[in-house]
Write a structure and sequence with these properties.
CATH topology: Alpha-D-Glucose-1,6-Bisphosphate, Chain A, domain 4
Bound molecules: ligand A8S
CATH class: Alpha Beta
Order of helices and strands: HEHEEEEEEH
Distance between the termini: 34 Å
Strand order of the largest sheet: 1-7-6-5-4-3-2
CATH architecture: 2-Layer Sandwich
Amino acid sequence: MNGNRGLSSLEMEYIRRHHNHEPGENQCSSVLVKHIKAPLHQVWSLVRRFDQPQKYKPFISRCVVRGNLEIGSVREVNVKSGLPATTSTERLELLDDNEHVLSIRILGGDHRLRNYSSIMSLHPEVIDGRPGTLVIESFVVDVPEGNTKDDTCYFVEALIKCNLKSLADVSEGLAVQDCTEPIDRCTR
Ligand code: A8S
């Protein structure tokens, strides 16, 4: 955990409710928070697409899901060049369209994240008087041989920050498109 620095009591309550990882001795775990100026349904429509992470994740070039999209579905993800990885195999653990929670687990791939599992939860909020979305993403992962907990957390947090920034950009773009016309139905 990041020592709960800068988290509001509401954020802490959401984390207690949805993000209860139990990191082992040789694992690291952390939570990131992002406020997005787009309504929850817009952000959720991107997050819930387990079969299309490339819609907002900037490092993913391709994704294939075998079989139907359901809990337990597995996706094969290709990573763009320039990163210390090319593929990742990931399983859908939880997809809750009522609570807006998505959880995935990494099963394998040619990267160093072993026993990685993450949870994303979305919560409606009001930002500057308009509908916005609070996104909370947490993870737990093994600390690889020869790395420290801090290094591992820093690496994963950096990737997730990029994903959340991009999620905000794409969702906010969709929210602006929604505003074209008629003007009175504009949600931003
Ligand atoms: C996610 C979160 C992460 C993805 C990481 C942390 C990854 O896709 C990238 C580089 C790696 O070294 C590991 O929700 C892996 O996507 C960009 C291939 C898993």
